[in-house]
Design a protein that fits this description.
With 170 residues, this protein is α+β, with helices and mostly antiparallel strands. Helix content is 28%, strand content 22%. It has four helices and seven strands; from the N terminus they run ββββαααβαββ. A four-stranded antiparallel beta sheet has the order 5-4-7-6, sandwiched between helices. It is globular, with a radius of gyration of 18 Å.
Length: 170
């Protein structure tokens, strides 16, 4: 496997986790997933995070102790998503409702609620995480971003950090 790595990459073992990770000797970059010699996929997303008592770091940047259960966190991001896209009427699905919403309006609502509601420090940037490549985010989060079309908002996504809703922006 090590011979299949792109130039300048090596496998190292994490002292804190005891598992292998990949380190680029030239750039100093480290990732959990094996780097690929293929063109790197760059993506950009914003998110709203609801942490819960079982989150890997159950503290909010707001300095408020996290006391919600995992189910309450999931429900919170569901509610926030509905505040962004609205409630479907009649036979309309959430996906159809979201598809009809103007992109600018969706982004503005998402940004406002991220700044107000997210437990992640990215709330200071309206939930924007900037550009990132494969292996930079927790696997469940990355897979959710890759499954979204640009401009689409996910349903609740569970990660070690809590529950997210994600808006893919690039």
């Amino acid at each position: 496997e090590r011979s299949a790595l792109p130039p300048n990459w090596e496998v190292r073992t994490s002292k804190s986790r005891g598992i292998d990770y990949y380190f680029n000797r030239v750039t100093g970059e480290s990732v959990w997933e094996p780097p690929s010699a293929e063109k790197e996929v760059e993506m950009r997303a914003s998110h709203i995070l609801a942490k819960h008592i079982q989150s890997r770091n159950p503290m909010s940047w707001k300095k408020v102790p996290i006391e919600r259960t995992p189910e309450e966190a999931k429900e919170k991001v569901r509610d926030i998503r509905q505040q962004i896209i609205g409630k479907p009427v009649g036979d309309e699905t959430e996906e159809e409702l979201e598809a009809r919403m103007p992109a600018k309006e969706k982004l503005a609502r998402f940004a406002k609620l991220a700044a107000e509601e997210s437990d992640c420090s990215s709330a200071r940037h309206n939930g924007d995480l900037g550009f990132f490549g494969r292996g930079k985010m927790q696997k469940a989060f990355e897979q959710a971003v890759l499954s979204l079309k640009v401009g689409q908002i996910s349903g609740p996504v569970k990660s070690d950090s809590g529950y997210h809703i994600i808006l893919r922006t690039k």
